[in-house]
Automatic annotation (TrEMBL):
Organism for this UniProt entry: Paeniroseomonas aquatica
Catalytic reaction annotation: heme b + (2E,6E)-farnesyl diphosphate + H2O = Fe(II)-heme o + diphosphate
PANTHER family: 4-HYDROXYBENZOATE SOLANESYLTRANSFERASE, PROTOHEME IX FARNESYLTRANSFERASE, MITOCHONDRIAL
Name of the protein in question: Protoheme IX farnesyltransferase
Misc. remarks from the entry: Carbon 2 of the heme B porphyrin ring is defined according to the Fischer nomenclature.
Length: 308
């Protein structure tokens, strides 16, 4: 009995820690960190391993800080949407003011440490990415326009630029190309999600494309952006920043992404009046898009490791 009693506070402490971690949106951070690390690895020059680790941690903390502030601002609609109603703030496990202070504190710390550990160009880009996600996407675009994801996608495209700048202290064509790849990847990725989660967005009045223009137009846009994305991913090879290892991976991964997008475009089950289920092409495309971006950037790093 005493063991059970002693274990209860530990479980509560772990649950509280889990809630604070959840505020950082760890699943989003994982992809942010990966693209940031690749930007750091493919950049010319050398960064001491300790400073490189510090830079990666700052990218993760900055992304997490933006996520926490996003959850603070969106707590009203999160409480209504089925997909987000169990988040720590709407569920009442974390006070909104504490969440905001947590996010702002992490944001300031991440930028300051990045500047001191690497350079202030990287710190400036990190600050820009946090500010863009919080003020431009979360507070301005998300609830006002169906192009929220298109413009707001820039926020998630900064990490490889930050990684590159941490090593070089500048921003040149290659990090801009990596930024552009993520920028054009974001609409088909997120609109695939919004196709099967559109009821939540409609309920809270968030003007995602399926809500404002319908599922058919959204499926079309998923395909259009994917068609634009695939040739764009070949530009690092065209400009000589990457070799055949990356080019082959980009073509193979892109061909599958196109296949998935065509399947989304041809899907008519919503037009037939049936509810969207977990195994529809939209959800498959959303899941593949996560794998696609991760493998594409891993291929970029592998290309440099193999071919120099």
């Amino acid at each position: 009995m005493s063991d059970v009693t002693a274990a209860a506070p530990l479980r509560q402490d772990l649950s509280e820690v889990s809630d604070w971690v959840t505020l950082l949106k760890p699943r989003v951070i994982s992809l942010v960190v990966l693209t940031g690390v690749v930007g750091l690895l493919v950049a010319p020059g050398h960064l001491h391993p300790t400073l490189a680790i510090a830079a990666v941690l700052c990218i993760a903390l900055g992304a997490g800080a933006a996520g926490a502030i996003n959850m603070w601002y969106d707590r009203d609609i999160d409480a209504v949407m089925r997909r987000t109603e169990r988040r720590p703030i709407p569920a009442g496990r974390i006070e909104p003011g504490a969440a905001l202070a947590y996010g702002v504190g992490l944001a300031l710390a991440s930028v300051a440490i990045m500047g001191l550990a690497t350079n202030w160009v990287a710190a400036g880009v990190l600050a820009l990415s946090i500010g863009f996600y919080v003020f431009v996407y979360t507070m301005w675009l998300k609830r006002r326009t169906s192009q929220n994801i298109v413009i707001g996608g820039a926020a998630g495209a900064f990490p490889p630029v930050i990684g590159w700048a941490a090593v070089t202290g500048d921003v040149t064509l290659m990090p801009v190309l990596m930024f552009a790849i993520i920028f054009f990847w974001t609409p088909p990725h997120f609109w695939a999600l919004s196709l099967w989660a559109h009821a939540d967005y409609e309920k809270v009045g968030v003007p995602m494309l399926p809500v404002t223009h319908g599922a058919r137009e959204t499926r079309k846009q998923v395909l259009v952006y994917t068609i634009a994305l695939v040739p764009l991913t070949l530009l690092p090879w065209v400009f000589g920043f990457a070799g055949w290892v990356y080019a082959a991976a980009a073509l193979l991964l892109g061909a599958e992404f196109l296949r998935q997008s065509v399947a989304v475009y041809r899907d008519l089950q919503d037009a037939a009046g049936r509810s969207l289920s977990n195994d529809v092409p939209a959800k498959k495309a959303f899941r593949y898009s996560l794998l696609y971006l991760a493998l594409l950037f891993i291929a970029l790093a592998a290309d440099k490791a193999v071919l120099g």
